[in-house]
Write a structure and sequence with these properties.
The protein has ten helices and seven strands. By secondary structure, the protein is an alpha/beta fold. The N and C termini lie far apart (86 Å). This is F-box domain-containing protein.
Length: 212
């Protein structure tokens, strides 16, 4: 029994085992950090972004795929609802600057199958939101109860590849119709739906865009 134990110890000592990192996070090479970040949930990534500039850069370089995302603004604040393979993320914020910061992060790293925007008029006159040049990435996008100027701003912040656009907006869409038609995503989308829209002249213009 003792000889068997000694033999097992000798075999174990001679095994070739990859090194285990027994060190602080800050001492790890970037490629190991990136591998760890890829396995983190969104909440963990957000916390890591706050630790140092280098960590923020690493976190921001990693894309996240979402089946569904909803950004909803309301009088008291703002809510985020995101679904991916690994987690469901839900967050409520009440500070507009903090809200825009999180929107910009998710916008830059998120790749959405379906994205729903319901900002109301929360960002209608917000220069920080209007001037940010980051782009949303989504295959299908739907606007629900969204200020028309904000909706146009979001459409202009979309990357190419949008296949479906739904607009559940009010009568104010008539006033900006020419500007909406000029947006490339509107012209190139396979499907464009405007809820309860009955202006014959404008519908004729839509048909012309499709034919062209």
């Amino acid at each position: 029994m003792a000889s068997d134990l000694r033999s097992l110890i000798e075999k174990t000592e001679n095994l070739s085992i990859d090194p285990v990192y027994d060190t602080n996070w800050c001492d790890m090479p970037a490629e190991i950090k990136l591998e760890c970040i890829g396995k983190m949930e969104l909440n963990e990534r957000l916390l890591l972004r706050c630790t140092a500039k280098a960590e923020r850069s690493l976190v921001d370089s990693q894309k996240v795929e979402f089946h569904f995302g909803r950004f909803r603004g309301y009088y008291e604040g703002f809510s985020f609802l995101l679904y991916s393979d690994n987690e469901n993320f839900c967050k409520h914020l009440y500070d507009k600057s903090e809200t825009i910061g999180l929107i910009n992060y998710i916008k830059n790293v998120g790749v959405f199958e379906n994205l729903e925007i319901s900002f109301g008029n929360l960002f209608a006159d917000n220069e920080q939101f209007a001037t940010d040049d980051g782009l949303f990435t989504a295959k299908n996008i739907e606007f629900e109860e969204c200020d028309i100027s904000t909706m146009i701003s979001v459409l202009k912040k979309m990357k190419e590849g949008v296949e479906s656009i739904k607009m559940n907006v009010g009568i104010e869409v008539f006033e900006k119709f020419a500007e909406i038609l000029s947006i490339s995503h509107i012209q190139n989308a396979k499907y464009w739906h405007i809820k309860d829209y009955q202006e014959t002249d404008s519908l004729y213009k839509i048909a012309q865009v499709g034919l062209n």
